[in-house]
Amino acid sequence: MSDAPLKVALRTYPYTAALKSGEITVPSAPLQFEEVKPHIAAFRRMVRELAYDICEIAPTTYLIARAYGVPIKALPVFFVRRFHHDGLLVRPDAGIKGPKDLEGRNFGVRAYSVTTGVWKRGLLQNEYGVDIDKVNWWVDDEEHVSALKLPANVHHVPQGGSLVQMMADGQLDAACTGDAGVGRAGKPDAGWNDAAPALPDLQEMFADPARLDAEVYAKDGVFPIHGTLAIKESVLERYPNLAAELYEAFVAAKAPYLAALKDGSATGKQVAKDLRHMQIVGDDPLPYGIEANRASIEALIRYGHQQGLIPRLCSAEDMFLPF
User: Which SUPFAM superfamilies does the entry mention (predicted)?
Assistant: First the structure.
């Protein structure tokens, strides 16, 4: 075993805790975990500075970074999953009755390449026929990959402004909620989302998102991915067995959590969400591996290309290590 630890930025989940505690190890090298608050800051450091040997980053950030030549490769493990009919807020006075009504309107999303925004635009375009080029996308943060060239219909909020203020002033018709939109104020920094900002009354665009999520999943098998594991290519070259060891370690760390979900003993803030997902996707709400996630990976690649984030289509195997 090498004496030099590999620097790792990874959030703590019920299915990563055993690695972070040292209960599960990898033979190639020791892992030195670093806590980054908020973890979004680690995305930027990884794709701009290669600040870590191994880093959990947003999958869209990863796709764009690879397209712009950042020497990283991802393991097909995905730490966060969610569907996207919910969290799409509209002003009740905006006259938006359905997705097509977003055309010609002003929509707020923290950054154009934020993965939540990519999935929502992909859903709107491919499932509901929205011409996303006719929507004015307003952003109030920078893109993780600073070299990214944005489409002409993406507009930055003026200096000193925010999506929250634009929504309060009636300048936005719709927005993503949470960290991807108007659920926070300011750029990712300590305490950036400690308190929900004051907003006017907003309503979900889709009245029954859970039913719609299940229907779309049954049709296309896409279970949106958020959070993957990027590894520096130089590290993969130096430790040729590391990728396989990490993949096996993440599978082993997840197994007790899946068993606890099934027998009802799981605890923690995300249990309810994972149980809801199991009603749609089956026994494993956190599938790993290319084949189990092929539809989702290919959809994200397709959406990224449609939205001008990556220059060409590619295969899942082009982007992810072969597991």
Answer: Periplasmic binding protein-like II
Q: What is the CATH number of domain 88-205?
A: 3.40.190
The DSSP code for 40 is H
Q: Which two tokens stand for residue 45?
A: 């450091």
Beta bridge partners of 232: 72
Residue 21: what are its φ and ψ, rounded to 5°? -80, -15
Top CATH class, 6-81+222-319: alpha beta
Q: Give the H or E element holding residue 243.
A: helix 242-263
Rounded Cα gap, residues 222 and 52, in angstroms: 30
Residue 231 has phi, psi (to 5 degrees) of -125, 135
Instruction: Give the SS3 label for residue 82.
Output: coil
Cα angle 18, 21, 25 (rounded to 5 degrees) comes to 65
By the 8 A CB rule, do 254 and 18 touch? Answer: no
Handedness of CA 103, 105, 109, 113 (dihedral sign): positive
